[in-house]
Design brief:
CATH topology: Glutamine Phosphoribosylpyrophosphate, subunit 1, domain 1
Distance between the termini: 17 Å
Number of domains: 1
Strand content: 35-45%
CATH class: Alpha Beta
Structural class: alpha+beta
Number of strands: 13
Largest sheet: 7 strands, antiparallel
Oligomer: single chain
Number of helices: 4
């Protein structure tokens, strides 16, 4: 089943927060994630830079950490940075997500692709999911528990529900990348391209990326 891009919030068995993002794409699969200190950017692979002329939405910062590593924001588009900046400037997470999603709205491509976002906050242990579609907007603080995850996607499973959840087996940030890319129920979500994860550590978030290999 093709559900497009995916964001997820989770908690490891030992209680560490984790946020995950997966690029899944049928139209533009030749992309990669690049880590640059406190952010991760999705860009075309070398030789496919011209794809950006076909669709302006395919390159963006998908992860940004703020407040000295207390908060990680992951998303499928240009809303990553403004949400992170509002949180940095003191806006509550729910309000930051709401204001930015309402301002930018769903992507104006041929699929009316929803904007999705996951936010995790080490200070209060919270994990948030948000989505804006052509027919509405949802934002929810998820009831995280050890060894569980929740997710929302851009297509089909593009609404926030406790049904979109499961057992989270990852113990490391690299295992989290593997999990959302091809593990558990995500193994049945087709066209994976790359995954990006942030997992809480003693002094911030560990960040990892993983490109799908056949």
């Amino acid at each position: 089943m093709y559900i497009g891009r995916i964001v997820s919030v989770a908690q490891t068995d030992d209680g560490r927060l984790c946020a995950m993002y997966r690029v899944s794409s049928r139209s533009f699969p030749n992309r990669q994630a690049i880590v640059n200190k406190d952010k991760v950017t999705i860009v075309p692979k070398p030789g496919y830079e011209g794809d950006m002329l076909k669709n302006p939405y395919i390159s963006y910062n998908c992860l940004k950490t703020v407040l000295d590593g207390e908060v990680a924001v992951l998303s499928n588009g240009s809303h990553t940075d403004p949400i992170a900046e509002k949180i940095l400037n003191g806006t509550p997470t729910r309000d930051a997500i709401a204001m930015v999603l309402m301002a930018l709205d769903f992507e104006k491509d041929e699929y009316a692709t929803p904007r999705i976002v996951a936010v995790v906050d080490r200070a209060d242990g919270s994990g948030w999911l948000g989505v804006v579609r052509s027919d509405g907007i949802e934002i929810r603080r998820m009831d995280l528990k050890p060894g569980r995850f929740f997710y929302v996607a851009t297509y089909i499973e593009n609404y926030i529900s406790t049904c979109h959840s499961g057992v989270f087996p990852a113990k490391t940030v690299d295992e989290a990348c593997d999990f959302i890319l091809k593990g558990g129920l995500f193994a049945d979500r087709t066209h994976p391209v790359t995954s990006v994860c942030a997992m809480a550590s003693e002094d911030g978030f560990e960040i990892a990326i993983k490109n799908f290999e056949g």
